[in-house]
UniProtKB/TrEMBL annotation, chain A:
Gene3D superfamilies: 2.60.120.920. This is Ran-binding protein M. Residues 296-354 form the CTLH domain. Residues 33-221 form the B30.2/SPRY domain. PANTHER family: RAN BINDING PROTEIN 9-RELATED. InterPro entries: B30.2/SPRY (IPR001870), B30.2/SPRY_sf (IPR043136), ConA-like_dom_sf (IPR013320), CRA_dom (IPR013144), CTLH/CRA (IPR024964), CTLH_C (IPR006595), Gid1/RanBPM/SPLA_SPRY (IPR044736), LisH (IPR006594).
Automatic annotation (TrEMBL), chain B:
Transmembrane segments: none annotated. Residues 77-134 form the CTLH domain. InterPro entries: CRA_dom (IPR013144), CTLH/CRA (IPR024964), CTLH_C (IPR006595), LisH (IPR006594), Ubq-SigPath_Reg (IPR050618). It comes from Salvia divinorum (Maria pastora). This is Glucose-induced degradation complex subunit. SMART domains: CRA, CTLH, LisH.
């Protein structure tokens, strides 16, 4: 049996070590790039999309209307004769998708001869000589009659008319799949968004001297978008709040999180508190899919404390005593992480010469991956600064780095449990698995919905304060 | 239309539904899961938020030391809050009211419903202890004037006074008022009010995260078949149902 475990043990060990090295690349480093923003920084900002910033002058309907030199104003200069000489202009980019709401406003500077101004959304295939809403796959709120047009020439009762001096807004609510419109800061109404694919904010003028200016967010909006967003979010939240979950589910997850991470003292106190709780909370003592959750609890606690107090030599010797198989291969990723931490501790103590010697002796054998190289480079860069903690690699001296190394050691010890069938399960606590599942589900749901809507962010939940 | 055609059409619909659902295998899904990076700090904060909001003050203090996570509010305020909660849970309502007022007199001043519920609980405790005369006096002097202000208070008051009308209170129609769950209900209400007065959310964030998981999985079920987490407590990934 010992043969079998030690054989299957080596790849598992490396996969766990590599996983945490990868995690370092993703989290510590990203954090380091934006030390100023600190906790406020949104970590995975791959959400950035191009946004409408101006009117599109290339693709606008020639001759009927003139876009001002700022590309934010539109004037009808001709005399309109029929329904195919509308001065309609789209924004230079479609409305961004990966968010909950998109919104823009127009200000009617002059309602001109007939006040046939419209605001709405159209697709890239839209015929740019017609009012938004008159053609298929478009939607528009028209100023002269206050009607809403959706894909044909017949409007439906919607809201008030608008004219000179009015500010009118058009928006998309991706969560509810709605278009909504506002007038002078007040919500007029919303309709089901039956247009598929990306849509462009669109403005139209259709009689002599009609003039509007467009606000794509470069100036503050008249409509209180923040309040509207909070209101919409609360609506969604009510549906979620009404879902029932097992009463002590959260307690069980916290408990297994403490077990997984080897926060033994906290766990003990939580168990005492649970017994004196009214009514007492009972949770099955063994939960978690990674086998018996209490495995090596106090050993893991001790090693975590050693790493967190910077005693890396002792960590190595203790591991050598309790789990020699973990560090027997000195070129494994886990050893690499520990050596880096030792180097960091030497820098912290101001023992720079010793750090240089240590680095030269230990780092050379790790040339396996670019991630290793990156970490070595960052470690070495600590030497270049007079005050390394304030440098761009100062994050290495922070608690998060220690925690990461401690987490890696913790996971590897968990994987030495002979009852563990799949060592990969040792990488994550059940809390982390739940968060990963929520995040992946939200992303998948969005991608199956034409990329519309916002992603799930744990940081937003953590930041959100009480709701009124 | 003959039954035959109805069946054919239904079959076609079922087939269309089945084919329009995207099937995501376990391997594909695990790859997606692996792309999700969760910050340890954030998980620690989530756990700390749970301990603080639920009032596990000693546990939170230990967790601060073991994990290096700073609690979002002064832990001393938890101690006071839990003392109030405990007092209600063990039936010392007068004591609880005094403690709440020591903490912040505005809490009860601005929250007439909570104050009424505490007074109601006080009367229930008097009845439980067989102090019928004291209970009656209390109802007339303290509760009745409040009932006049508010119809729903009045109904609650009548329900409570009804306890006095029965010989065998344990089996009377309003016996649930004497149940321990009534104390817990009141205690939870006070707890929430104190948290709100400290500009803190009354509920921990973790349960709403779990609800979100159930919600989003149900939503995604309509469009895709993928490995779900059915049992929150183990967080085990099930195989996708094809």
């Amino acid at each position: 049996m010992s043969d079998a475990t030690s054989q299957s043990d080596i790849p598992a060990k490396d996969s766990i070590g590599d996983y945490f090295l990868d995690l370092w690349c993703h989290t510590s480093k990203t954090l380091a790039l934006r030390p100023e923003t600190g906790a406020e920084s949104e970590l995975y900002d791959e959400e950035e999309e191009e946004q409408p910033t101006a009117l599109d002058t290339l693709n606008s309907s020639g001759g009927f209307s003139v876009v001002g030199p700022d590309k934010l104003s539109l004037l009808y200069t001709n005399v309109n004769l029929h329904g195919h000489d509308v001065g309609v202009v789209q924004a230079n980019h479609p409305a961004p998708l990966k968010r909950m709401l998109y919104y823009f406003e127009i200000y009617v500077k002059n309602a001109g001869a007939k006040g046939q101004i419209a605001i709405g959304f159209t697709t890239s295939a839209f015929k740019v000589r017609r009012q938004p809403g008159w053609e298929a796959n478009s939607c528009g709120y028209h100023g002269d009659d206050g009607l809403l047009y959706r894909g044909n020439g017949k409007g439906e009762a919607f809201g008030p008319t608008f004219t000179t001096g009015d500010t009118v807004g058009g928006g998309i609510n991706y969560a509810m799949q709605e278009f909504f419109f506002t007038k002078n800061g007040v919500l007029v109404g919303s309709v089901y968004k039956d247009v598929k694919g990306p849509v462009f904010p669109t403005v139209a003028v259709h009689s002599q001297n009609e003039e509007v200016t467009v606000n794509f967010g470069q100036d503050p909006f008249v409509f209180d978008l923040k309040a509207y967003e909070a209101e919409q979010r609360a609506k969604q939240q009510v549906k979620i709040d009404n879902i029932s979950i097992p009463q002590d589910a959260s307690y069980g997850i916290v408990r297994s999180y403490l077990q997984h991470n080897g926060y033994e003292e906290t766990l003990k106190l939580l168990d005492i508190a649970a017994q004196s709780n009214v009514p007492p909370i009972s949770v099955a003592p063994e939960n978690g899919v990674s086998g018996d959750a209490m495995y090596a609890l106090s050993e893991r606690k001790t090693l975590r404390q050693l790493i967190k107090s910077g005693k890396i030599d002792e960590t190595f010797s203790t591991l050598g005593k309790w789990y020699p198989q973990i560090i027997e291969d000195d070129t494994s990723t886990i050893c690499f992480l520990l050596h880096c931490q030792k180097f960091i501790e030497l820098v912290r103590d101001g023992k720079l010469e010793e750090a240089v010697l240590y680095g030269r002796r230990e780092f050379d054998k790790f040339k396996k991956s670019s991630a290793c190289d990156d970490l070595v480079k960052d470690c070495a860069a600590l030497l270049a600064y007079d005050q390394p903690s304030k440098s761009s690699v100062g994050y290495l001296l922070g608690d998060s780095q220690k925690e990461l190394v401690a987490d890696a050691v913790n996971a590897i010890i968990l994987s030495t449990n002979p009852n563990v069938k799949d060592p990969c399960l040792c990488k994550h606590s059940s809390l982390e698995r739940l968060i990963r599942q929520v995040t992946a589900c939200f992303l998948e749901k969005r991608s199956l919905n034409g990329d519309q809507g916002e992603a799930f962010r744990l940081s937003r939940i953590l930041k959100s304060s009480k709701r009124a | 239309m003959s039954l035959f055609w109805i069946v054919i059409r239904e079959l076609a619909e079922i087939q269309a539904m089945a084919t329009s659902k995207k099937v995501i295998t376990r391997v594909e899904w695990e790859k997606k899961l692996n792309d999700v990076k969760v910050r340890k700090d954030d998980m620690n904060k989530l756990v700390m938020n749970f301990l603080v909001t639920e009032g596990y003050v000693e546990v939170a203090e230990k967790f601060r030391l073991e994990s290096g996570t700073e609690p979002e509010i002064d832990l001393a305020t938890i101690t006071d809050r839990m003392a109030v909660k405990k007092a209600v849970q063990s039936g010392n309502v007068e004591d609880a009211i005094e403690k709440v007022n020591d903490l912040n007199p505005e809490i009860l001043d601005t929250n007439p419903l909570l104050f009424f519920h505490l007074q109601q609980q006080r009367m229930i405790e008097l009845i439980r202890n067989g102090k019928v005369e004291a209970a009656l006096e209390f109802a007339q002097e303290e509760l009745a004037p409040r009932g006049e202000e508010n119809q729903s208070f009045l109904e609650e008051l009548e329900r409570t006074v009804a306890l006095l009308a029965f010989e065998d209170v344990a089996n009377c129609p309003v016996s649930e008022l004497l149940d321990i769950s009534q104390r817990l209900k009141t205690a939870t209400e006070v707890n929430a009010a104190i948290l709100t007065s400290q500009s803190h959310e009354k509920d921990p964030k973790l349960p709403s995260l779990l609800k979100m998981l159930i919600w989003v999985q149900n939503q995604l079920d309509k469009k895709a078949s993928y490995p779900r987490i059915n049992d929150i407590s183990t967080a085990a990934l099930e195989d996708s149902v094809v």
